[in-house]
From TrEMBL:
Source organism superkingdom: Bacteria
GO terms for MF: protein N-terminal-serine acetyltransferase activity; protein-N-terminal-alanine acetyltransferase activity
InterPro entries: Acyl_CoA_acyltransferase, GNAT_dom, Ribosomal_N-acetyltransferase
Lineage of origin: Bacteria, Bacillati, Actinomycetota, Actinomycetes, Micromonosporales
Name under which the protein is recorded: N-acetyltransferase domain-containing protein
Pfam families: Acetyltransf_3
Domain N-acetyltransferase per the UniProt entry, residue ranges: 16-183, 205-372
A single Gene Ontology CC term: cytoplasm
Leader sequence residues: none
Gene3D superfamilies in UniProt: 3.40.630.30
CDD domains, alphabetized: NAT_SF
Amino acid sequence: MTAPHRSTQRIEAYGVRLRPFRLDDVEDVAAGCADPLTQHFLDGLPDPYTEADARLWITEGAPAAFAGGGAAYAVADPTTDRLLGTVGLSHVVPQRGQAEIGYWVAPWARGRGVATAATRALSEHAFATGTARLELLTRVENTASQRVALAAGFRPEGVRRAALAVRGGGRRDRMVWVRLADDPPGPAERPLPDLPDGRLTDGLVVLRRLGPDDNEQMYRLHSDPEVVASRVPPEAPTRDEIERRCHGAESQWLVGTAAAMTILDAASGEFAGSCMLLPDQPASGQAMLGYSLLPGWRGRGYATRAVRLLARWGFDHVGLSRLWAGTLPENAASQRVLQKAGFRREGLLRGRLPGAAGSRADSTVYGLLTTDPLG
């Protein structure tokens, strides 16, 4: 980084104003930082957060950020100049031309694109003044912030395990999002788009994104003996594993790792099972799919309907060219599902899967091309 940021400089772009904090921001800073959602994701804030804390930040904390080569701007409405949140640069490494960008948005300003606008504005200012690389760190479950990162042109780069201590003890992972000075402008590309209107349906079955509220149903599903037998390896997951899977499902979707969905009965809304699309060869337009149903919903065509919906979405919206699925050779029910959905048997892979007690299991492979008719 070549030139230090100046606390007196204003930046106006994308419908927001970045300006220095003022003492008349005290009440709004205190209200924004005392908000439960802000407190939940920013463990370093005092709790409770008072107007005295806000005054200390405005008079000492923000100026110190600029003095250290970073930045701490109030994000304000360009018409009223009322505070909407804050955005800043920290953990500056001058010799690497690197800094970390962070923000929070006040409750009265959420849902208006304020965080994205402020992040874009400060990022461009940082790049124009010599920064080469910006990092943005989020919790795995903070998908709202991850959507901001993507919209502001940041790309996922990985996870830093136990990167930050949290209030009350313990440590949490942080996802790392990065934008470089020479990255193309605009939002970062998403390999897996959101579902149209948040769901897929054929009138009888509904598919929607897996989420934290599905913990108990997913644990019940993956504790079923038949489902366990088809897992790789064939072992029942723990509750903690299921909870992590449900809480991390949207994040995995956003980075393009997997699209995990629940299968629901359209009439009652009851949980029937789950399915997943996993892009295992993105460069060649290929993805794997899988599915499981609770015992009470089997034999009623729900799995076939779910596979058809998933396949259509994969071809029409994700842009895939090929889908495949594998089953154990003895799993005749799953093979019938795939055949009814239009998949063709392509062969047997010997010893492909880890089995019980260190053994290996064969896998029967089925494939579906975008040019194939759906069953």
